[in-house]
Each structure stands twice: as structure tokens, then as C-alpha cells.
Amino acid sequence: MNYDEQMQMKTVEFGEMPPQPFLLGLLSAFDNRYQAAADAFFKEITWKQFFAIICINLCKEPPTINELSDVMGSSHQNVKQILLKLEKKGFIAMVPDENDKRKLRIQVTEEARAFLEENDNNGEQSRYIIGRIFEGIDEQSLFITIQTIMKMERNLSEL
Into how many domains does the chain fold? Predict the structure, then answer.
């Protein structure tokens, strides 16, 4: 594949780059661009803070910082900084675990729930943005991409 033609970039030359490093770079660049766009979309919180709230809600029970770090794929320190900012804004509360008082469990607040109600995938603007990002991509291609990235994730966890 001629990446120079595909990317339509005049300032970069990809040459004969193998597809594996090209895909990793593409994913990293996309992540950066998406984060910048999502940060501009939300007024109250950053994309990473929004992602943390989503990940908390994915957990079967309120997670600890370590558990949330695993779900988010980020370091304990980074997640803790995100949570401290969310706590300051009233979006989460850190409460002692009922069985082990040394552990803190993270719970979303009513304020966060209201924010999610307004800004989740059901919102008109969110549907528009997601629709535009995935425009022209059929469901089979999405499933192949998901399977590929999940396989890459498993391989990465075995390093």
C-alpha cells in the first residue's frame, strides 16, 4: 500500500514502512486527534475524565483506583490525577470499601449521571460526531477492526 497516497500528506514520507508500525502510529495519531476534538466538545470535563466515568460505569461494582487503572489501560498515578479532578468537580466520590476500609471505591455522583444523560451516545450531537467518524465504514469492517485491536491488546498484555 502506498501510505503517502492514502494519507495525502505532502510533508511526510512513509516509504516502504511495514503495515504493523504504520498501524501503531496511525492509532496513536488518531487517539491524539480524537482527544483534542473530544476535549473541545465537552465544556465541563476533558475526554479522559469522561472516559474514566464511562469506565467506572462499566464495572459491576464501584472499582478501586487499581481496578479502574486496569480497565482504562493507564497508570495508577494518571488515573488518580483524573479522579482527583473529577472529585473536585463533584462528578465522583471515593468511599471506603465496606469489607476493607483500607480500600477506596469510586462512585459516580448524581451530577455525573446528569452530565452523562446530556452527553452520552444518545445525545444528538454525540450521535452526529460518532456517525461522522464512522461514515462509510460497514459493520463487517468494524468487527474486523475490533477483533484486530483486541488481539493486539492480548498480545501486548503478554509482553
Answer: 1
Please, what is the average pLDDT of the chain? 87
28 vs 22: CA distance, rounded Å: 10
The answer to the question of residue 91 being in a domain is: yes
Please check whether residue 88 is in contact with residue 81, taking contact to mean a CB–CB distance below 8 angstroms: no
The grid coordinates of residue 107 equal 462512585
Q: Whole-model pTM? A: 0.80
Quick one: 5 exposed, middle or buried, by C-beta within 10 A (0-12, 13-18, 19+)?
exposed
Instruction: List the CATH number of the domain containing 83.
Output: 1.10.10.10
- The CA angle 118-119-120, to the nearest 5 degrees, is 110
d(CA 156, CA 20): 13
* Residue 90 lies in domain: 43-157
In a domain, 23, yes or no: no
Question: In angstroms, how far is CA 116 from the centroid of its own chain?
Answer: 15
70-85: average pLDDT: 96
Q: Report if residue 13 sits inside a domain.
A: no
Helices 47-58, 76-88: crossing angle, 10 deg rounding: 100
- Note whether residue 124 is domain-resident: yes
